[in-house]
Amino acid sequence: MNENQAFPWDHPRFRSWIGVARACQLMQQAMTRAIADLDIKTPHLDILINLYRFDGISQQELARKLLVGRSNMSMLLPQLEKRGLIERRPDGKDKRILRLSLTKSGRDLTMQAMAIQTGLIERTLSQTPEDRCLQVAEAMEDIIHILQTMEPAEEA
Amino acid sequence: MNENQAFPWDHPRFRSWIGVARACQLMQQAMTRAIADLDIKTPHLDILINLYRFDGISQQELARKLLVGRSNMSMLLPQLEKRGLIERRPDGKDKRILRLSLTKSGRDLTMQAMAIQTGLIERTLSQTPEDRCLQVAEAMEDIIHILQTMEPAEEA
DNA sequence: ACTTTATTGTTCAGCATTGAACATTTTTAT
DNA sequence: ATAAAAATGTTCAATGCTGAACAATAAAGT
Q1: Does residue A6 belong to the interface with chain B, where contact is any CB pair within 8 Å?
Q2: Which domains does chain A have, with CATH numbers?
Q3: How many Å separate Cα A51 from the centre of its chain?
Q4: Which end of chain B, N or C, is less surrounded by CB atoms within 10 Å?
Q5: CB-based contacts of A37, cutoff 8 Å, min separation 6
Q6: C-alpha torsion B9→B14→B17→B18, nearest 10
Q7: Which protein residue has its CA closest to C1' of D27?
Q8: pLDDT tens for residues A41-88?
């Protein structure tokens, strides 16, 4: 509190980050509504898109990409499997690993969902010129890098 | 899919937004670890900060600021009240409303938490120059505005 | 005045997420 | 070869968040 700013919200970086967090929260809520017709929520969408992109990925790798715990995948994937959207097949060499892939209907659903998702992002960022988007992306890259390297130790 | 890009992840705005979402997720996790010593989590922190800033706010107003449902506040606030961090007093004129305020120990805890939070944000955004932060903030303002005006109707 | 509508907060069932403990299998150390 | 350590997926209790239904109060319409 003996910083150059009296309160956090007077701090420029703090204010910037609050904006990022709010935008994320609102986007997530809008996305949830946008894909509700397909009877999936954003966690499922994230899974489906990553399976679309990385066919044969393991649950562990998927969890890492999504920045969630393994147990989360153990809860969600069986649901998608029961709905016939994905398949889980044991790896040939390593008997611990389950390899994931989309079924035909899973791929179909994923493409519909991606179209909706892309459309929403497109509409939402339409006011933001492409070079500004690129600047934002660069800033986020830096932030992501710092956060990932500081993960285990949180204090100086 | 008959857009200019074949896949969403080849789309510049899409990629930008993925970066924003990842950064947010990582920041939230880092923040959760950073304030774990104070025995609160990010939802509590958000509440405390808003009570610090807007003393006497109602539960409804608080929920609106945090972009969450009223029921969420009805679950979390009694916890903080039991811990002696906040007080809920009925409004004098409108008997429906509960007005919220921090107790002394609530204010103390909030100041500690804010110091940690500001420090983490400071460290994380240290690589990002202030003018770049400002550009990000502007972009987020636009995005927030669009998302808030599109809230009720999600389709064209 | 009286009825209808809206607002505020609560409760509840449902689901996502986590972290810890566990079993199985693989890898590494000795 | 054998033991120790690590990796993968599962289960479970705890918690956050939501939306719907509800009670109490206030505001608006008649």
Answers
A1: no
A2: 35-139 (1.10.10.10)
A3: 13
A4: C
A5: none
A6: -20
A7: B94
A8: 999 999 999 999 999 999 999 999 999 999 999 999 999 999 999 999
The set of residues with CB closer than 7 Å to nucleic strand D is A 29, 58-61, 63, 70-71, 73-75, 77-78, 88, 94, 96-98; B 41-44, 67-72, 75-76, 79, 93-96
User: Which amino acid appears at position B29 of this protein?
Assistant: Q
User: What is the spatial distance, in angstroms and rounded to an integer, between the CA atom of B88 and the C1' atom of D15?
Assistant: 23
Q: Dump pLDDT digits (tens) for B1-31.
A: 455 567 888 888 999 999 999 999 999 999 9
Both tokens of residue B29?
């996790």
What's the complex ipTM?
Answer: 0.89
Q: Within an 8 Å CB–CB cutoff, is residue B6 touching chain A? A: no
Residue with tokens 């791929």, as numbered in its chain: A107
C1' (C18) to CA (A140) span, angstroms: 25
Give the tokens for residue A156: 């100086």
To the nearest whole Å, the CA of B92 is away from the closest chain A CA by 30
SS3 state at B149:
helix
**Residue type present at position A108:** D
Structure tokens at B2: 């008959």
B152 alpha carbon, distance to own chain's centre? 21
Window 72-131 of B: residues touching A by CB (8 A cutoff) are 111, 114-115, 117-118, 120-128, 130
Per-residue pLDDT at A10: 81
> Is the Cβ pair B127, A150 closer than 8 Å?
no
Share of chain A above pLDDT 90, in %: 86
Asked if the C-beta of A29 comes within 8 angstroms of chain B's C-beta atoms, the answer is yes
Report the C-alpha gap between B86 and B82 in whole angstroms.
8
* Rounded CA separation B130/A15 (Å): 11
How far away is chain A from the Cα of B24, in angstroms, using its nearest Cα?
6
